[in-house]
Specification:
Blueprint (H helix, E strand, L loop, with lengths): L5 E5 L3 H12 L4 E5 L2 H5 L7 E7 L7 H10 L6 E5 L4 H9 L4 E4 L4 H8 L9 H17 L9 H15 L4 E5 L6 H10 L8 E5 L5 H9 L16 H5 L4 E5 L6 H13 L1 E2 L8 E2 L3 E6 L3 H6 L5 H7 L3 E3 L9 H17 L5 E2 L1 H9 L5 H15 L4 E2 L38 H15 L4 H7 L4 H12 L7 H8 L2
Parallel strand pairs: 1-2, 1-3, 3-4, 4-5, 6-11, 6-12, 7-8, 8-11, 13-14
Antiparallel strand pairs: 9-10
Helix pairs in contact: 7-8, 11-13, 14-16, 17-18, 18-19
Length: 482
């Protein structure tokens, strides 16, 4: 085996195979993975494996048959069988054939490493495993790479967010519709910063009554009110020393508390409820809102001075309808997650479902998409998600046959030319505005109405504005609103 132990995995379920490989590699072991027994046998070096993790049911040569073939070739590899089906007969047969262990899917990390440890040069201790898995989970959950999407508008937002993470700015404002992932961006900023080893404290300002938020944020002294039997540190104090406070839905914060929060940001200190002494404060505040705080200020629902103090850096989180084909990447991501959690094997989507996902406006954003995928996977009978179990809002009954495309190009439309004349650019701008309005702001759907691709539609928007390819979404909206 040389200086390392090679672990081989044979499993036709790609999600299980890749997840197991990543887990074993995370502790420094070398892993090869194969989708079939035939691929493993034709690899040219099955004898180099220190241990073989083998699925029982495989296409072509099955797991038990591969075990027999290896024995017949005098290649007695230690085999750990894995299966999603509990069958005592198969289990007994495998163990009699020399298998060293039999793991039921989904298996735990501890069970897996306990099985392979005897065959690696430096076994993984429980302390190592716990520390490495915690670090891996932390990294996986809170890095910018965990935020899925390739659209230019998302990538530009993430580029700016990374700069924020690296800076020492004390307050950040995230604005975006509900379900766009503002909480994920806040966590990614924290964990990509020098504050990563300090606490990340989150509070939803809309979830707590106004009379409780103050004591939750600032804490209280003993005797401050009837039930205050002892001093309690608030969330600001828990994050003190360089952590991050995430204030979600900050627009719901009571106007009086807004004044106290402004004092914290400007003076770097606060007082507990019932307290007489200032408590120094050093932490970053990341605030988030699904409302336009500037408009809330104009309506006198939010303090303008607090808005300006929070918006030293403002990041606008794009809606799913602005992100183009990111919806398909996210849909496949949620399928992969549910395949693991629910032990399903959904392979993808029908062309009709893909088209429906592209054209729908997704008012609930990523959260709505996640719920739609979960619902479809629970109800779907086959291994492909069709439009059958998608909500009616996503697949409206248009009265046309599947795949039939109706757009303005198919219609016998006439446009009356004014006596004084009109520029073609004005006509085109008017049509683009009407298409966007009819599509609820969804550029993909608007493009479809005009018989254009999404890229062609976006190009025409930019051309009419005289912009470069880097035009922002807010600028594109300006075209739509004249």
């Amino acid at each position: 085996m040389g200086d390392y132990a090679l672990i081989s995995i044979v499993d036709d379920d790609q999600s299980i195979r890749k997840a197991t490989k990543r887990l074993i590699e995370s502790v420094g072991l070398v892993v090869e993975d194969f989708a079939s027994a035939e691929d493993f046998l034709s690899s040219g070096h099955p004898q180099d494996s220190a241990c073989l993790i083998l699925d029982v049911k495989l296409p072509g040569i099955g797991g038990l048959e591969l075990q027999s073939l290896l024995q017949a070739s005098d290649l007695r590899l230690p085999i750990i069988f894995i299966t999603a089906h509990s069958d005592a007969h198969i289990r007994i047969k495998a163990l009699k054939g020399g298998a060293i262990d039999f793991l039921q899917k989904p298996f735990t990390e501890n069970a897996l490493f306990k099985a392979i440890n005897p065959f690696v040069a430096m076994p993984v201790t429980s302390e190592q495993l716990e520390g490495q898995l915690l670090q891996k989970e932390k990294s996986k959950s809170f890095t910018f790479e965990q935020i899925i999407g390739e659209s230019p508008v998302l990538q530009e937002m993430l580029r700016l967010a990374r700069k924020v993470a690296e800076s020492e700015v004390s307050s950040v404002l995230l604005q975006g519709e509900s379900g766009t992932g503002k909480d994920l961006v806040a966590k990614a900023i924290h964990h990509a910063s020098k504050r990563a080893d300090r606490p990340f404290i989150a509070i939803n300002c809309a979830a707590l009554p106004s009379n409780l938020i103050e004591s939750e944020l600032f804490g209280y002294e003993k005797g401050a009110f009837t039930d205050a039997k002892s001093r309690k540190a608030g969330l600001l104090e828990q994050a003190n020393g360089g952590g991050t406070i995430f204030l979600d839905e900050i627009s719901e914060l009571d106007i009086n508390l807004q004044a106290k929060l402004l004092r914290v940001l400007e003076e770097g200190s606060f007082r507990r409820v019932g307290g007489l002494k200032d408590v120094p404060f050093y932490a970053r505040i990341v605030a988030a809102s699904n409302r336009d705080l500037k408009h809330e200020c104009e309506a006198r629902h939010f303090r303008l001075d607090l808005y300006y103090r929070l918006a030293v850096i403002q990041l606008d989180i794009p809606s799913l309808s602005e992100r183009g084909d990111d919806v398909l990447l996210l849909a496949q991501h949620f399928v992969d997650l549910n395949n693991i959690n629910r032990r399903q094997k959904i392979k993808g989507f029908t062309p009709e479902a893909i088209r429906a996902f592209r054209l729908y406006g997704w008012p609930g954003n990523v959260r709505e998409l996640r719920n739609v995928i979960e619902r479809a996977m629970i109800l779907e009978d086959g291994d492909i998600i069709s439009t059958r179990y998608l909500p009616r809002d996503i697949v409206p009954d248009t009265g046309s046959s599947p795949g039939h495309r109706v757009n303005v190009i198919d219609a016998d439309a006439t446009i009356s030319l004014p006596r004084q004349g009109i520029s073609l650019d004005q006509v085109e701008k008017s049509l683009l505005k009407q298409a966007l309005a009819q599509a609820g702001g969804n550029q993909t759907r608007a493009a479809d109405l005009l018989g254009l691709t999404r890229d062609q539609f976006r190009y025409r928007l930019k051309k009419l504005r005289g912009t470069t390819p880097g035009t922002t979404t807010s600028q594109q909206r300006a075209v739509a609103h004249g």
